[in-house]
Amino acid sequence: MTTLNGLPAHILLVHAIVVLLPLAALLLVLCALWPTARRKLAGPNAVLAVLVLILVPITTDAGEWLERRVAATPLVRAHTELGDTAVYSAIAVAALALVIWWRHRESAFPDDGGPRRVLRLPAPRRTLLAPRSTPVTIVLAVAAIVVAAGAAYDIYRIGDSGAQASWQGQFAATPAPRGGHR
Description:
Blueprint: E1 3-4, E2 7-8, H1 9-33, H2 35-67, H3 74-83, H4 86-107, H5 114-119, H6 134-167
Antiparallel strand pairs: 1-2
Helix pairs in contact: 1-2, 1-4, 1-6, 2-3, 2-4, 3-6, 4-6
């Protein structure tokens, strides 16, 4: 994908990443720390995080296409190099979002087999991610906070470098004179 409606696709797609990756990271922390949010948001956030993970390489590919069509400056090179790190943040957020969703899904199985035994349903499946383990929950919560903070910082750095590459030296410190208007 190179252009959308005559504009470079990168400058449009990047807005989705700037909004959706930090949103997925914020929801990741909420789901890790707050059981009510986990019940309602773990599944949708896992889908969102995977969608962002798919969108990041598309956006960086569009950025590389654009890079070949603008002046090669140190700021553009710095932005391109930083942009390549976004996929690592997206992978970390998506992986943890999927783990938290899966753990929540596993916790939906009853321990005692109560209604399952009465209804003669098969025993619950074996759980893989210790959904009722407090230490595992704490480790995942800390990991979610660290990953979310890292993703937000990474997106900030990438966005700032892109803004510097696009706008540095492109505007005046004082307002431009307007013909006939005050």
